[in-house]
Model the fold of this input.
Amino acid sequence: MASPFSLLVAAVVAAALLYAALAYFSPQEAGAFEKFSRELDLAEATEGSFHSADILLKGGTAMKADGLDTATRSVRFQCTSEQACLGDAVEVMVRQMVVRSDIRAKVHFRCVRSGGIDSCTAYIGAEPAQLELSGLAVDAQVESGEAFDVSFGVKNTGSLDSVEGEYDVGVFLRSTENGKPLETLKKELKESLGRIAPSDSRKISVRLSVDSPGKYVLRATAKGKESGEAKQEKEFTVIDTVNAACKATEKGAITLEEGKCRTEYLCGGCSFEYECISKWREKGIDTGNVYTGDEKGIVVESEPIGGTCV
Done:
């Protein structure tokens, strides 16, 4: 049985050999490094989907992810085919890639937002799985409290299986507060997509209902493990019978603020902002640019004429 001292010596020797091996590989030449950096910049700009590039990697060099990280992204490497990574030319590790001989590699770059930063991957070899979402459909106008249908398709356009996939459908109420757009999540549905083979697709159909009238946006998202992320959105309106007691009562104050005319239009007996808007529209008022509002009245913005509001 080996003594503790001999085991310690063996460990020290092994560590020294590893250090010497890594020291042999110089940093990847500037051209390849700059190419990786530019492609990662592009991947951040096209978040969720991958793009590909042919890059010449010089033998006897190494590339470390530390040099590609920025304040907005964290980078890692991943091998996606045995032919590309298990030969003598290149060894791919999570945060380092060692190139032993010259090779022109097909590299696929993709970034996905995670934890407040872009998680970016450089895939070496085959194209990774990639989920695409298309054909999001919802009626432009639905009735309050009534069920309505939402449908869309999800397809894997990559070369590998998409695993642990899921889709998310969120319904957001749009409103304004002090002139600033506001969105409030009113309903959300998440379901598994399971495994999707390359070129296969899923047809998704769900039924939803919304109780509060107003303007909404529906957002559908599909994502999976190493499968990217795809999104689509559509606006729709939820309507209800306008309360018979709702009336457009009077025109209120007119002010000139931030270069815009802001005119108050007051209402009484209304339960929702959209009812007040509807009543003033019936009177011929252009309500296309509502600055803020509620069931008691709305403020409409317009351009001044000759520097004054009328």
The longest strand covers residues 180-196. Residues 4-26 have pLDDT under 50 and may be disordered. The chain has three domains: 15-124, 131-239, 247-302.
